[in-house]
Design goal:
- It is built from 11 helices and no strands.
- With about 290 residues, it is an all-alpha fold.
């Protein structure tokens, strides 16, 4: 009898490991943010080490002292990879933020400036969507002279289309809302209505759009740099690391390419998970899932 009571008490007790969907999303975002913060701090601490060479430690495989091994000049690949990730994050942040501003401006213009502006902007969105991102980015980077300026312009001018459509649809829906119609009847200007009623409702979409643009911006920056049209070869960018390491892959030095590539995919996946879960965390109707 005593044993049966203990078993019943044990089965009635609920373990705290059973989390709902919102709690799991919050935990996943927390770990992803911690990873990105660690990458940022590591890039600052290892900036000088990423450029230092040691000819006595060339082509060393991964070890405790050099987790990602060393390259043909004795440079520590772990330090170069972390510095390259920080540089990619900086480029992705500037490019994605610029793209969000373009999407916000054109989305608001298409929804508020009349049918003619809506048709022109919709045609422009369809035009950019019909062109491959990578090809357009290569052309923009080539015309602008390459470097960080070319990469940022390429990202900003090619990644705004989908978000602009979302903003346009959201603004059209908000324009027909009752509180917006009441403000217009009370004599409020379009700028007052847009700044007080429409823009606050667009902040979640803009934040989620910024985080979802980050992975594309980072991968496309690495792709352009890999092709030689992006950042300077003197900078420890991921695309430069992969481009230089490809010629040594056939010699058995797999760590020069595989480990930096996995690190890039990990950072991209971290941003992707933050963007996917952010909408769930901000949506009050799904808080109990």
């Amino acid at each position: 009898m005593m044993m049966e009571r203990k078993i019943k008490r044990f089965t009635k007790w609920k373990f705290p490991i059973y989390l709902n969907r919102r709690q799991r999303a919050l935990l996943s975002v927390f770990f992803a943010v911690c990873l990105l913060v660690a990458v940022g701090i590591g890039g600052t601490l290892l900036e000088s080490r990423a450029l230092s060479t040691s000819l006595t430690e060339r082509n060393v495989p991964p070890s405790f002292e050099h987790p990602f091994g060393t390259d043909w000049l004795g440079r520590d690949m772990f330090a170069r990879t972390i510095s390259g990730l920080v540089l990619s994050i900086q480029v992705g942040l500037i490019g994605a933020a610029s793209s969000v501003l373009i999407a916000l401006s054109l989305g608001l213009a298409a929804a508020t400036w009349g049918r003619t502006a809506d048709r022109i902007i919709s045609w422009l969105i369809d035009l950019f969507l019909s062109l491959p991102h990578l090809v357009t980015m290569i052309l923009i980077a080539f015309v602008s002279g390459g470097g960080m300026k070319g990469v940022v312009l390429g990202v900003a001018l090619t990644h705004w289309t989908s978000l602009a459509r979302v903003i346009r649809a959201e603004v059209l829906q908000l324009k027909s809302a009752e509180f917006v119609q009441v403000s217009r009847r009370l004599g409020k200007s379009r700028w007052w209505v847009a700044s007080r009623h429409i823009f606050p409702h667009l902040i979640p979409q803009l934040l989620v759009g910024l985080l979802l643009l980050f992975p594309h911006a980072i991968l496309h920056e690495a792709s352009i740099t890999f092709l030689g049209l992006g950042l300077s070869p003197h900078q420890p960018a991921i695309g430069i690391i992969l481009s230089e390491s490809m010629r040594y892959l056939s010699t058995g030095m797999w760590w020069l390419t595989v480990l930096p590539g996995l690190a890039l995919l990990t950072v991209v996946r971290a941003f992707d998970r933050i963007g996917d879960h952010l909408h769930l965390m901000l949506d009050p109707h799904r808080s109990q899932e």
